[in-house]
């Protein structure tokens, strides 16, 4: 009340531009102390004095009116003011102001919210993302990841059984699309990616492939929803790297994902500037994963845990010599220039969940060879104790909940044999990287398991963004 009383004649419109500016500045101050409704009243009285007379202050008034309505959760009222301000700033060639208002509009209208559906052989993953603007490009902000079990291959996939009930794969997809409706994410901002493993399995049987695609098309709620069915292992490695590694550190970081049947990743080299995407991806694609190693250790037998422990190191060492070392040698010149290796996969998650539960909310968690040694020894000596880290010291309820969720995820995905070969494979892989003058840093990247669909999302919107700004326009999609 004292602030409002300090301006004479406040009940009337501003008499001139000078008084209008005084009203506008006071309105901005009131907004900062949660008096947005009072700010709107002031801005309306300022507007007649600047409309058509001072383009800059008219744009500022429209922007502040939009922000005040947004503060009051009146989004429908906010958008017209902000859109007018964006247009006025653009006409004035105030590029930064126009860009900033444009990002606010995208936030209010939900245009910075996207979804990705990643179809794997044994599950379907849904990820809800928001864009975070970095310098000259967009990065991801993962908000929600939902994992839905369901075999999506044709022998138990999207077809209905005799009773008409949906099979697990279709049920998982239906749950994804139901979530998209709840989040109000349209088909145009939804990315669906079929993993290379599913694609390879389908390509072995053309009849099954046609059946699968027909069933998949019937399961989609919107015919305009496009699915990327072209992924090769090398392309999947590239998208994983795009999705897992922040673009601003591509020049210093490579990526590796230790999956069930393969280890893939790589690094980018070349230019990466706005409007110039002449970069080259160097892929690592090894047909060695946690499950394939378990199968090689056991052969056609079912070994006891003790026998498995004796045999596993020999098999992992053989895989290093036959698959890992030759491929890394071919890429060694590029890898030696990259100080950091971003890691994904269930084994890396298990190590972090068991040894560092206090970092359950941390996106990037460093992993050392000492960590891997401790992880491996815990598996060999008392895996049950290893899998039950002390959580009572985690005072933050959200942190403790996330730590418990990580432990549950690991227990549902990996058994003792998988943990052991995974630890041995991770250790062998880390030892193959040359130390150089600066020691290598290995960092677990959280949410890397949705890397390929996230990479598809980032690649698409950044291409659209860069193409748009190259034309001198604002990215409004």
- How much of the sequence lies in strands comes to 15-25%
Secondary-structure element string: HHHHHHEEEHEHHEHEEEHHEHEHHHEH
- Radius of gyration over C-alpha positions, nearest whole angstrom: 27 Å
Which regions contain 5 or more consecutive residues with pLDDT less than 50? Answer: 154-166
Q: Report on the biggest sheet.
A: 6 strands, mixed
Shape: elongated
Q: What's the number of extended β-strand segments?
A: 11
What's the overall average pLDDT, rounded? 85
Oligomerization state: single chain
Distance between the termini: 42 Å
Q: State the share of residues found in helices, binned by percent.
A: 40-55%
Word description of this protein:
This protein is α/β, with parallel strands linked by helices. Helices cover 54% and strands 16% of the residues. It has 17 helices and 11 strands. It has helices at residues 2-5, 17-32, 36-50, 55-71, 75-92, 95-108, 168-183, 196-203, 206-219, 233-244, 290-298, 305-335, 346-355, 369-386, 397-413, 416-432, 451-470; strands at residues 113-119, 123-134, 137-149, 190-194, 227-228, 253-258, 263-270, 279-286, 340-344, 364-367, 441-445. The strands form 2 sheets. It has a 6-stranded mixed β-sheet with strand order 8-7-6-9-11-10, sandwiched between helices. Strands 3-2-1-4-5 form a 5-stranded mixed β-sheet. The longest helix is centred in the C-terminal third of the chain and has 31 residues, at 305-335. It starts with a helix and ends in a 7-residue tail after the last helix. Mean pLDDT is 85; it is low at 154-166.
């Amino acid at each position: 009340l004292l602030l409002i009383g300090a301006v004479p004649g406040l009940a009337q419109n501003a008499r001139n531009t000078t008084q209008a500016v005084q009203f506008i500045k006071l309105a901005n101050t009131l907004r900062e102390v949660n008096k947005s409704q009072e700010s709107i009243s002031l801005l309306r009285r300022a507007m007649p004095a600047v409309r058509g007379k001072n383009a800059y202050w008219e744009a500022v008034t429209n922007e502040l009116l939009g922000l005040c309505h947004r503060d009051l959760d009146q989004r429908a009222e906010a958008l017209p003011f902000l859109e007018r301000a964006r247009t006025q700033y653009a006409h004035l060639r105030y590029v930064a102001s126009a860009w900033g208002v444009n990002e606010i509009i995208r936030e209010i209208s939900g245009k910075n919210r996207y979804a990705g559906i990643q179809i794997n052989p044994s599950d379907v993953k849904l990820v809800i993302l928001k864009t975070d603007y970095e310098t000259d490009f967009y990065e991801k902000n993962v908000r929600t990841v939902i994992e839905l079990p369901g075999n999506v291959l044709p022998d138990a996939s999207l077809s209905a059984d005799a009773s008409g009930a949906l099979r697990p794969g279709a049920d998982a997809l239906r749950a994804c699309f139901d979530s998209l409706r709840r989040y109000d994410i349209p088909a145009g901002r939804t990315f669906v990616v079929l993993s290379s493993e599913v694609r390879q399995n389908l390509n072995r049987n053309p009849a099954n492939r046609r059946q699968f695609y027909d069933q998949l098309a019937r399961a989609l709620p919107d015919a305009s929803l496009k699915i990327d069915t072209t992924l090769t292992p090398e392309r999947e490695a590239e998208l994983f790297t795009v999705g897992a590694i922040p673009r601003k550190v591509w020049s210093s970081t490579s990526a590796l994902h230790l999956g069930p049947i393969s280890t893939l990743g790589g690094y980018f080299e070349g230019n990466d500037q706005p409007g110039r995407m002449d970069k080259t991806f160097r892929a690592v694609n090894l047909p060695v994963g946690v499950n394939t190693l378990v199968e090689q250790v056991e052969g056609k037998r079912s070994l006891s845990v003790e026998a498995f422990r004796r045999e596993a190191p020999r098999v992992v060492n053989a895989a290093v010599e036959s698959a890992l070392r030759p491929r890394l040698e071919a890429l060694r010149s590029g890898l030696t220039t990259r100080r950091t290796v971003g890691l994904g996969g269930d084994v890396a998650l298990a190590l972090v969940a068991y040894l560092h539960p206090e970092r359950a909310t941390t996106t990037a968690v460093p992993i050392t060879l000492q960590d891997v040694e401790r992880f491996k020894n815990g598996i060999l000596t008392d895996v049950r104790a290893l899998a039950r880290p002390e959580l009572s010291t985690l005072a933050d309820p959200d942190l403790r909940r996330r730590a418990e969720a990580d432990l549950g995820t690991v227990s549902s995905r990996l058994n003792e044999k998988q943990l052991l070969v995974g630890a041995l494979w991770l250790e062998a892989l880390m030892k193959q990287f040359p130390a150089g003058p600066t020691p290598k840093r290995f960092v677990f990247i959280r949410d890397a398991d949705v890397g390929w669909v996230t990479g598809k999302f980032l690649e698409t919107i950044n291409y659209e963004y860069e193409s748009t700004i190259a034309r001198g326009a604002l990215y409004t999609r």
